[in-house]
Amino acid sequence: MKLLSFPDTPFQIQLSFDSVIDNLESAVNEKANRQAGHEEALLKEINQHPELRTGITDIAQIESNAGLIRRLLAEYFPEPLTLNEIKGVSFPYLNVVFNRTQRFNNILKAAGDNFEFNIRDLDQHQFYVLNCCLILNEFYNTKLDFRKPLFYDIPASDGTIRHYRILYNADFLDILPTERSVKLTSADIDQLINNYDNLDLWMEKFPPKSWLIKGFALMSLIDVTIENAVSVLKERLLRFDAASFEQSIDPVFQSIFDTPHIKIGFTLFNSEDNTLSIAAFGKPLRSFIMEGTEPRNINDVLCPGSYQALIVERRYFAVSDTSDFHIENPDSSLACHVAPSAIRSFILAPVVKDDEVIGLLEVVSKKSKELNSINANKLDVVMPYITDNIKRLIVEFQNQIQAFIQEKFTTIHSSVYWKFKEEAQRYIYSRRRGEEKSLGAIVFNEVFPLYGEIDIKGSSAARNLSVQKDLQTQVLSLLSLLQKIPVPTPSDGFEKGKRQLERFLQDLLLPVKASTEQYITDYILNNIHPWLSECQEPGLASAIKEYFIENDKASGVFHAHRRKYEQSITMVNEKLAGIIDNRQEEAQQAFPHYYERFKTDGIEHNLYIGPSIAPGQAFTEKHLRDLRLWQLKVLCEMETAHHYYKPSLPYPLDVTTLVLVYDTPISVRFRMDEKRLDVDGSYNARFEIVKKRIDKACVLNTDERITQPGKITIVYSNLHEEKEYSEYVHLLQEQNILDRNIEKLDVEDLQGVVGLKALRVKINHDNTSLTMM
């Protein structure tokens, strides 16, 4: 006799009806009524088949005695219940079930000839140990609770899977030792209890086929398809994501509604702007009521009846036949949308959380009448789980957005995130305790500031030149076009306009002023373009159309030089920012420090390092010196990268490089209104003043800027700073990053700032250690 798919068991199995036959004999001896004759005849027939008492060892014996067994067990299988109960005779975990009720047979017939009994999630290890536990409880008085729900998953004729819980009545089973049984000690039992995973140990104490299990079990199945579907749904929703929506959810609802035609969709509802939209939790969820991917007003999607039910009354809205629904509601956008589709019946369910509709669950079928207002109530058992998990996905998505905003749009750097988290926890905990406390100040004391910039040289002049060239092209084109337009009557304004354009052309031969671009553009827009728009000359229509095409800022020739300039600025900034951002990841490993970087006409950066930034680590002067040397080296790398990158720019642009040395520690505070760190207090303001005024400074008593292309300029205040940075310069000279010649400069007096000095050194662009960094 074959045991499931598990070859090993501690039991020898004897299928026997000895206990039932004994009961039958007792009944015959005690009864003196008219039924005794029937029982005597049955007992006489049974005695002709001793294997029913001593033990059946072959399936053929079951088949040959099927009628007799059915009569013997008739008391346990009432005929009036044969179409109601799912019941049969078996051994626990045996894949042979016989004497089945008619309903059981109908289920197996629908399952097909290839169906085999397999208990869900039961493997050889579990099977063996559970059998051993039966013996321990029976013979050694242990109270091991090894019980777990057992299930059969049986396909129905329509392809859906029905789920049945297995219940065993073991009253007719006896467990007996054999000569091969191993006698266990208390120590043996303790060892087994503490070593569930050691199958070899269990097989040592309970050798295969060393015990006898005799008798039979009554097996009943209970259809728990809906309960199982809810359980599976809860399990899948725990690890649910948008990518697995269809594969995870559809089969569950197919089981609940007992049809393979069910599909599930979902649509988000935004009560703030009254719109429906596709839910994009990583991957867009499927929706059957939305057209396209753009949000739509809910009244453009739902009909008045469905809106009233779903949004106002917050109840299910069911349509059992979409064709009838369309006929009855010919003007309904919902009816017009679903009628041409494959959907023939559907249910919409509001997903409500915290008294707010957050979305619509869509249950659709390709068969009419399959979904309706009656079976819509089956959703009651699953909607709480759907609601909780949709809300979870929304919250997770919002958290991702918040994290993205924090990463991309704020200046809360990772090095100081701990401080913000600490203050947030303190504030939230105090509010939960009912304490009214304001947010505390986020201040970092005694930090050393480092400032550096790579500025695009002459960016204003370069932009003015691009404006000049574009306006020259546009004005010349306009003058040529106006020459072809017949002079209108009166002609004074027209001729005045042409003369003004000619004056503009003369003005554009000289360097343009800051206001020139706006003035000329406004004049052309308000005085010249109306004439072109009103011109009715058929021969000029094409030329006028071409003119307006060329005036397009995104692609027209009249903005070509300005686009090249803007593109060049963007390319320079992206290139330089990428270098310092990447190098920052490495520098943070040496010692955490605050870093912020700004894109202007070039790249500026601030660094703050000190014990208050990373209080959990010991800060030394070496950390500061290492970061200062790192800053110089990275700026040289950035300038060198630009040197090689410049020929590929649409508009060739030079850059200058500057470092500001500030050896006095300062305090920085997070400005809540500006959402950024800034120096704290007036006594620290000098650092910011110098930063803002130094980049355009000149060498004392000259017109020469302290910054020059191809060189790095280090601005400082005292001899101590000069000595320290001279050491860094010498190190970089030894690495052939900087030229041997060092210029020592006095910086002109600036407003509120006097006595600054500078070191200026040429950068060796041919240094491979920089180009390979």
UniProtKB/TrEMBL annotation:
Domain of life: Bacteria
Name this protein carries in UniProt: GAF domain-containing protein
